[in-house]
Each structure stands twice: as structure tokens, then as C-alpha cells.
Specification:
By secondary structure, the chain is of the alpha/beta class. The chain has three domains: about 10-115 and about 145-175 and about 210-245, no CATH class; about 255-410, Rossmann fold, CATH 3.40.50; about 440-635, 3-Layer(aba) Sandwich (Rossmann fold). The chain has 20 helices and 26 strands. Strands 1, 2, 3, 4, 5, 6, 10, 11 and 12 form a nine-stranded mixed beta sheet that branches. It has a seven-stranded parallel beta sheet with strand order 22-23-19-24-25-18-26. The protein has a five-stranded parallel beta sheet with strand order 13-17-16-14-15. Strand 20 (about 510) and strand 21 form a beta hairpin. Helix 7 (about 230-245) packs antiparallel against helix 8 and helix 14 crosses helix 15 (about 395-400).
């Protein structure tokens, strides 16, 4: 699967005005396509990029391939700044270099190269041993070391954050203020990974090739075994990173661009309802979103209905890093969608309290729907997320309204929030998903252990490909721990957005987070997702919320995820009323079982770090201490 290239606009004209722009340009040079990513850059980087584009334009016209030129890639892992001046990703067919390191006729097939740009004159550059240095006033910087760090950072990003197989990454230093002859005469670092102002494409590719073990295979192929579509997909991820997408968004973008069984099943299955089931963290939402996006790309009309506005805002933020997708795929909460029909048939009006339950009106609507023309033919596919416990009238109405469309259902099996009864949507198309795709292995083990000690068999398999993860159990959550969690997250490319706090009902006052002023006094910026007026705000790269952690109620967290999740006053979930009244369940053990399932929802939101805040004398605290003693390598009890 290959996503369209929304970051670039296709430009066939090669006029001077068109060429000398860094905005959304896509160059078709006979067969070769060269994509210049839309990003603001400094003047020296801009001039260098334009020089490179001109060389590519001149020298690659006879060849077939695709090249992505991506300035200012923000990796975060190393410094939190724009760590890579220029990233080149691409493939080119039938390009032969006459000689590299004495070897003749080397085939140059694909590359993934970081480029550190220095605009110093010859006087500002010098050699010390095998390293290249530049001068900034009285300060001297080791450019060779800086360039190597970029390469290793990119390797780590592929491996740890994107969780992709790593291509053969090369690194170059581009001295844009020095010509090759001057460089050779004054500095003398020949046969290296350094290119100069008058670099040709042959020079560029030869410098990359010198870093490859050519004697072993006789060609340069960084993405060996990758398809053209896979190279294009990973390039679009780094374009999102260049725009400033955080690691959580990158992880989702990566999942969005992977093939799954779901799309082919949807297209080949003519049943009116397709059901995908699985526990929390097994990838149901992303699979639905991916399938919907692919169908939209094929010109199909799709509607995505989900649990609440918090999740919609989160999904819209992810989709905002794939420009064009958000306008094609309609995302809406089931609450607002159903209210639109109740309004339409006079069963709801502006005097009704939106916070109240509208199920009685839905029952009436369901009873009279056959008397009205309620067939919705606008959408060909309707995706229904978190559909395991929707109240009975809603599935009946949806099936009736969209009887000409195909319904694709994500069933969370036992993540109940609205009801204690399982909604019957039909049989799943495949056995339930049970491999955890969200949480690191240690967190899955912790949640399974916690559930087991409370009598619940949590049938989910820890992912041995996503190792690590930690749990911190504490009585107090304060600014020091908060700052430490943020600092730890930076190593993996996280922004404050990747830290989510969940609040119990006792922390809510007047519909807002009770301790907002206290957090502000601690200089902890946060987005109050408890406040209803904030829930429809769309996150994207322009919003300041990327610098804020998120706070939601426990009731709003289903479907959300974060690199680090903090469960405030977690023990209160066992004593305070649940969103659904479990008092109607006759047997105490059954009530305890349902209550435990409810607490597993917040425990499965974290990807890497789970913080649980409890009173030290509570029963749950004692249980957690027992688990910590059994798993001291990854559970800390403070």
C-alpha cells in the first residue's frame, strides 16, 4: 500500500519561478520524480537545497525512480532540536557509477542518507586527526562526530520508535562554502564522506557508496528488500517528523501505512456487517482508521463513528499529519450523529440537556423509523469504533439507516463503559486479536498479573518485539516526578503531549480539573480534556497543545493512548461509582469481575511508562505492592 503524497503538489512546469520555491513542489524530471518537502528552513539550508535540486534536475533526467529531499528532520532523540539538516531517501533504477574505491560499474539502487550542512569558508574548517572541525568564533565543533551521531540517531529512530527494519544508513558532511579543489588543497580529507559546494550527483552517490561494503555485493542498496511503496511510506513518515509530529503520532502514522488483513477482507466480503474483535491495545482502532483511509484514497465515501470527542480529537490530530485525509474521512461521535437524527424527526430540541441520556428517545425513534425515509446513502462504508457496549437501540438504528452500506465494527470484547451487556453485532470475521500492539512487554505482563490477582483472565499476549516498559506506584504525584517523566520521554522523541493524566471523579470540580491552579503554580502546562469546551479542539502541528500534557477523566480514556500514563487516585475506581451502575448485578463476585474489567481500561493506555497513584493504606495499594515485590526489575513501589 502506498499513501498518496499529500505533502507535495504535482508540478510539471520547470520554470525558474516554479523551481526556486520550497513550497509543496514535486518535480517530474522525465522519468525520475523528486519530492521537495514543504518546510521552513534557514537561508543557508535553503540555498543548499536549491543547489542540490538543480543538480538532481540536470543529471537524473534519463532515469526512473523517486527521491525525497527532506530538510530539518526533528528526531528529538539526541537533542530535542532539528537534528538532521537534510535527509535524502530514495531509489533510482539503472544508475551506474563508473568507479568507487577502485571498483568499476557500481549499480546505485537506493539510499537513506543524513547530510550535515556547514557553510563555513576554508578558513573556518580544519582537520584534526581523521575528524573535521569547524570554528564558531572561539568555539570549535567536531562535525564528524556530529554527523555520526545523526546517523546513529536515525538508526535508533527506525528501531525503537518506528519499530521498522533499519535500512543501511549513510551520513555526509556538505561544506557549501568551499569548492572541491580548495578543500583538497587546504584540508586534504579526500576519499571521505565530505562533499563540497560544487558537488555533482556522481560525487554525491560516490561518497555514499564509499560507506558500503561494495566488495561483498557490488551495488549500493540501502533499502534492500523494500518495495517502492514501502520506501515512499517511510519517506512520508519523516516528512511528518519534519513538520514536528511527536513520537506517538509517528507510531500511528507508521501503523497507518502497514498492510493489514482488514482492508482485503472488507473489499472481498459482501456481508453487510464485518466485526473485528480484540482486547485493549491490539490495534483495532488503527486498523479501522487505516482501512477507512485506504478506501477514501480509492474514492469511497466513509464515515467513522467512535466513542467520544476526546478520542475524535486524538484521531483528528493523527490524521492532521496526513494532509487531505481529514477532509475525506468524516469522523464523528455516535452521540452527535444520533442527536442529528433525533433533531431531524422532532424527538430532540435545544431545550434538552445534552448531558442527559438520550436512549429513551432512541427507543421511540427505533419504533417509528420505518414510517420515515431514514436511508442514508451518502456513505458506502461506516466504521464503528468501541462498539462492544452500545445501548441496544443504537445498533438497530445504525443497521437500518445504513442498510445500503457496509458496517465495519471494532468490538473491544470486555471494555464496558456504557453497559455491562455485550452488544451483539454478529460473528467476528477472524478470531479475536490477542497480540498486544500498544504496550511494551513488561506493561502487558503487569496488567495480566493485576487482572489475575483479582480473578480476571486477561487473554492478551505480551509482544516480544516491543521489549521493556516500567510501572511506578506512588502515593504522591508532584512536579519532580512529572519533570522526570518528561525528561525520560525525550530520549524516545516524546513531547509533553505524550504524557496523559487520568483523574477520578473526586478530582473534578465544576466540570474542570480541580487542581488546575496548583498545576499552573508548578509550571506544568496541561490541556484540560475534562472541560467540555476543550473536547472538540483539533490537535495539529500548529497548536500549542503539543507542549501540554493531557488530562482526562477515567470515563473518557477508552481508545486513547500515551507514551506515559498517570492514573491519579486509582484506588478510588474501586470505591466510587462507575459510569455504569454495577449495583444491579446480583452476585458480589460478578460485580467485582465487572469492576476489575473497568479498571483495566486505564491500565492499558500506556505504551512505555505507567504511573499509578494510590493511598498507601488502601487494599489496592497492598495488592500493587505484592506485584512490585514479585517483579522488582520493572515495577517500582515508592
Amino acid at each position: 500500500m502506498c499513501l498518496p503524497f499529500p505533502y507535495w503538489r504535482r508540478i510539471c512546469s520547470q520554470s525558474q519561478d516554479t523551481f526556486y520555491s520550497l513550497r509543496d513542489h514535486y518535480f517530474i524530471i522525465n522519468m525520475a520524480k523528486i519530492y521537495l518537502h514543504n518546510v521552513d528552513v534557514t537561508e543557508d539550508v535553503k540555498n543548499s537545497v536549491l543547489l542540490l535540486m538543480e543538480n538532481l534536475k540536470k543529471e537524473l533526467s534519463p532515469y526512473d525512480g523517486e527521491i525525497w529531499v527532506i530538510p530539518n528532520v526533528d528526531t528529538h532523540i539526541a537533542t530535542g532540536l532539528h537534528d538532521i539538516d537534510l535527509l535524502l531517501i530514495g531509489y533510482i533504477n539503472d544508475y551506474i557509477i563508473d568507479e568507487i574505491c577502485g571498483l568499476k560499474s557500481i549499480s546505485f539502487e537506493s539510499f537513506c542518507t543524513t547530510i550535515e550542512i556547514k557553510s563555513h569558508s576554508a578558513k573556518g574548517v580544519f582537520r584534526q586527526g581523521t575528524s573535521l572541525y569547524v570554528r564558531y568564533g572561539s568555539e570549535e565543533k567536531n562535525v564528524t562526530q556530529q554527523s555520526d551521531a545523526q546517523k546513529f540517531t536515525l538508526m535508533k529512530m527506525f528501531r525503537d520508535i518506528l519499530q521498522l527494519r533499519t535500512p543501511f544508513i549513510t551520513n555526509l558532511i556538505w561544506l557549501t562554502g568551499i569548492k572541491y579543489d580548495d578543500f583538497r588543497d587546504t584540508i586534504g580529507l579526500t576519499n571521505s564522506n565530505i562533499i563540497t559546494a560544487d558537488v555533482t550527483i556522481d560525487n554525491l552517490f560516490s561518497s555514499i557508496g564509499r560507506q558500503v561494503s561494495l566488495k561483498d555485493h557490488g551495488f549500493v542498496d540501502a533499502f534492500k528488500g523494500w518495495s517502492a511503496d514501502e520506501i515512499a511510506s517511510v519517506a512520508s513518515i519523516f516528512c511528518a517528523k519534519s513538520e514536528g509530529a511527536d513520537s506517538l503520532t509517528l507510531r500511528r502514522l507508521n501503523l497507518l501505512q502497514k498492510e493489514t488483513f482488514l482492508l482485503s477482507d472488507i473489499e472481498s466480503n459482501k456481508d453487510p456487517i464485518i466485526v473485528l474483535s480484540g482486547h485493549a491495545g491490539t490495534g483495532k482502532t488503527i486498523m479501522l482508521l487505516q482501512a477507512a483511509q485506504n478506501l477514501c484514497n480509492k474514492g469511497k465515501k466513509c464515515l467513522f463513528l467512535t466513542y467520544n470527542n476526546a478520542l475524535i480529537s486524538d484521531l483528528k490530530r493523527t490524521m492532521s499529519f496526513i494532509p487531505g485525509a481529514i477532509s475525506e474521512l468524516k469522523l464523528e461521535s455516535v452521540h452527535s450523529f444520533m442527536l442529528s437524527y433525533l433533531y431531524r424527526f422532532g424527538l430532540w430540541n435545544d431545550s434538552n440537556d445534552l448531558a442527559t441520556d438520550f436512549i429513551p428517545e432512541m427507543i421511540i425513534f427505533n419504533r417509528i423509523k420505518s414510517n420515515y425515509d431514514v436511508l442514508n446513502q451518502e456513505y458506502e462504508y461506516v466504521f464503528v469504533d468501541e462498539a462492544q457496549d452500545w445501548e441496544k437501540p443504537i445498533p438497530e438504528v445504525l443497521k437500518y439507516i445504513f442498510r445500503k452500506a457496509q458496517l465495519v465494527i471494532a468490538d473491544g470484547i470486555d471494555q464496558f463503559m456504557r453497559s455491562s451487556d455485550q452488544t451483539d453485532w454478529g460473528e467476528p470475521i477472524v478470531p479475536p486479536l490477542n497480540l498486544c500492539l500498544r504496550q511494551r512487554r513488561n506493561l502487558t505482563i503487569f496488567v495480566k498479573t493485576f487482572a489475575s490477582k483479582l480473578g480476571v483472565s486477561w487473554n492478551i499476549i505480551p509482544n516480544n518485539h516491543i521489549l521493556g516498559g516500567r510501572v511506578i506506584i506512588t502515593e504522591v504525584y508532584g512536579p519532580e516526578l512529572h519533570a522526570k517523566l518528561l525528561e525520560d520521554g525525550k530520549e524516545y522523541g516524546c513531547t509533553p503531549y505524550d504524557l496523559m493524566l487520568l483523574a477520578s471523579n473526586s478530582l473534578i470540580e465544576d466540570g474542570r480539573f480541580k487542581h488546575a491552579k496548583t498545576y499552573q503554580s508548578y509550571k506544568i502546562p496541561f490541556y484540560d480534556g475534562i472541560d467540555k469546551k476543550n473536547r472538540t479542539r483539533i490537535y495539529n502541528e500548529e497548536n500549542a497543545e503539543r507542549r501540554e500534557c493531557r488530562i482526562y477523566t477515567y470515563e473518557s480514556c477508552r481508545g486513547l493512548e500515551a507514551w506515559t500514563t498517570v492514573c491519579l487516585r486509582f484506588d478510588e475506581l474501586f470505591t466510587h461509582p462507575h459510569p455504569h451502575d454495577y449495583s444491579e448485578i446480583e452476585y458480589p463476585l460478578a460485580r467485582k469481575y465487572m469492576l476489575t474489567l473497568w479498571t483495566l481500561i486505564p491500565l492499558t493506555r500506556a505504551i512505555d511508562t505507567l504511573v499509578i497513584v494510590v493511598r498507601k493504606d488502601s487494599d489496592i495499594s497492598k495488592l500493587l505492592k505484592e506485584i512490585a515485590n514479585e517483579n522488582p526489575d520493572f515495577v517500582t513501589y515508592k
